[in-house]
Amino acid sequence: MLLHEFRPGRLLVGLTALALAALYAGDAAGAWTTPWYTVIPVLCGGLGAAALTTWVAYRVRRRRSARSLSTDSTDAPASSSGSQAIR
Description:
Blueprint: H1 8-29, H2 39-71
Helix pairs in contact: 1-2
């Protein structure tokens, strides 16, 4: 059982942050040279991909819940709100 629902956009933001950290850690260790302006395309690309992924996941969740609600109305009578007396 999952404790919370899966959020793929947050996963991509975390992976983007780890990629930037790895780039600058490798630069600090002297393994390679990373220019300072590398952060801009990597960060913008990662945030854009995360936003697109979040939007797609939202649309899928919304469509899935709409389908389950449309088939769930067979059990209750039409006036189950209690505002009308059934005799």
